[in-house]
Every structure is written in C-alpha cells, then in structure tokens.
Amino acid sequence: MATRYCLFIMLAAVMAPFLGASAAENDVRLEGEPVDILCYFGGKSGGEHADCAKSCVEKGLPIGFVTKDDDGKKQMYLVMGADEKPAKDYMAKYMGEMVLSEGKVVDKDGLKILTVSRTIVISTESVVPSVTTGAEDSVEVSLTGEPVDVQCYLKGRSGEAHASCAKTCAEKDLPIGFATVDDDGKEHLYLVMGADQKPAKGIMLEHMGKEVTATGTLATKNGMKILTVSKVEAVEEDDDWFPSEGVGSGSIQNQ
User: Fold this and answer.
1) Distance between CA atoms of residues 148 and 190, nearest Å
2) Residue among 233, 227, 225, 144 at smallest CA distance from 183
3) Which one of 11, 59, 211, 230 is most buried, counting C-beta atoms within 10 A?
4) 3-class SS at 11?
5) CB-side exposure of 16: number of CA atoms within 13 Å?
6) Per-residue pLDDT tens for 49-88?
7) What distance in Å separates the CA atoms of residue 47 and residue 95, rounded to the nearest whole number?
C-alpha cells in the first residue's frame, strides 16, 4: 500500500495542472423558482412556503433553482452567487416567486450549478405547486471522499493545501460538496446537507480538505443528488479512497 501511495503522489505532482480544471460554463437566462433545497426535497415549495423558505436560506441552507427544459421536464440547479457571495444575497427575497435569472451554468461531476448575476420577478405564480412529491430515490450510504467548497472546487481548487480557504468559504454559507470516485473511476460531486435540518458546515467544517468516510442518506430529485450526512470519520493515511489507475479531481492530492 505504501508503494502505491508513493507512486500516486508522484503521478499527482505530474498531472496536477491537468486535473480539477475549471469546468466549462455557459451563459443562460432561465425562468423558474428559487427553492430551499431541504424543504423542496421534503415536498414543500411555492408561494405558500415562501416565508419558511426565506427562513431556511437565511440560516445558511442551500438554494436550488427549479426550471423546466424544452421537453417540460423539471430540472434543479444548485444556486451560487456571483463574486463568491452567498446565494441568499441574490435569491432570498425571491423565494416562492416565478423569476427570470441570468448567469452561468455548469455541470461538475453530475452536480448542475447556476451562478446568478441578475434576477427579476416575472410572476408571483410558482413554477411548481405548493406541495410536491418528495425525493424520487433515497438510499442509506457510506461514501469515502473529500468535503469541498463548491465555489473553489469549480475552479480546480481542493485538497489539504486549500483547506483553510475551504473552511472560510464554508463559514460564509457557501455550499459544501462531497467529491468521491466510484468503483469505475467516475468522479461524482454531491451537495452536502446536515442531518436534522442543520447547515452542512456544522458537521463538515473541520473536515474540509481531508479524506473522510461520510455516512448518511443519498437522495435524488429533478436531477440533483444530495448527501445528508449524519456521521463523518477520518480515513487512515494508508486507506486510499481513489482508484489505483488514476487520480480524480476530488482527491486531496489535487491542489
């Protein structure tokens, strides 16, 4: 194991400039509704839920943007604020309303993200009903990977060398993701939520930039997957979570 770990370090040093690079962004204008993701996964949204949604996002819980594609299928994006500001600075006052948002979208390892620069109200009628179905799929999981601040991870920044910045971003209520690699070597990025309706930073802050095993529930709705974490354990140095054949941008060796 030690030999493979040393070989990995050498490979990471050579490949680092090419790994975890900034994901490609596209300029968009989307019509939809900003929602607090926690309650939306529980089946609550719309104008009647607006006050609760505003309260949740002010506590630092993440914001989603629900829209419909050309085929009428609902899609949900994780909302980020421009200029590295929390999404609530841009979206809190629009919760439960139909809006037009301008910004950039990116799909990073399966997590669709909308970075908003401008939003206007176009209707007080919600794009989704006040009561929706809950998560489409939910399973108990135990995943090994790295907690990352999504804002910087999109720019290719992660790992132990970036841990201090990651903690600062998390303290500002910027979204926390969990970067992991499956058995086939495919990278995944999940949005992290804390258990008992608490912000993710409460359980993940001290682990930013480290290899950990997170236990909780993985749920899916409208294309978004969230990992609600109930327990976090440090990974021993020799227990490499990355595949032996390559390096994922979620590895803590990628700085």
Assistant:
1) 10
2) 144
3) 211
4) helix
5) 14
6) 899 999 999 999 999 999 998 898 999 999 999 888 899 9
7) 8
Alpha-carbon gap, residue 46 to 9, rounded angstroms: 49
Sign of torsion, CA 206 227 170 46? Answer: negative
Q: CA geometry: angle at 224 spanning 223 and 230, to 5°?
A: 145
Closest among 229, 179, 159, 162 to 201, alpha carbons compared:
229
Structural domain harbouring 69: 26-123
The answer to whether residues 114 and 155 belong to one domain is no
| CATH classification of the domain holding 50 | 2.40.50
Give pTM, 2 decimals.
0.79
The answer to whether the CB of 227 falls within 8 A of the CB of 156 is no
Q: What is the number of structural domains in the chain?
A: 2
Hey, what amino acid is at 194? G
In sequence order, what E strands does the chain have?
26-36, 63-68, 74-81, 98-108, 111-123, 137-149, 176-181, 187-194, 212-221, 224-234
Name the residue type at position 211.
E
